[in-house]
Amino acid sequence: MRELNQRFRLLPCQTPSTITSNRVFTIFNFANFTHLLSHLHRELSLGFRNEKLSKLNVALREQLEESQKTNESLTNDLQKLALDWQQMRDEMLEKEEEWKEEEQVQVVLFCR
Prior knowledge:
This protein is an all-alpha fold. The protein has 2 helices and no strands. The protein has one domain.
């Protein structure tokens, strides 16, 4: 945009005495103008692209935060399940020991 402003400041003022020489200069200015329009278009499209990328970045960050929360929740659930599983395993081993002791007592009682 700065380039566009600088280029237009360099344009000569049209007066009746410069109309003939301006025809050649007008072709030059038109080429500059089209170049500037092209440059402006590129800058605008980059701006829109940057804006789209920024929006995509925000959306991806939100998804990342959500997945981190979900991951933390699942990790907590898994830890709780692992603890519950260990407690149940310990209880089963205790009961198995009690059954073995009880079986030995019954064997001794019946063998007498």
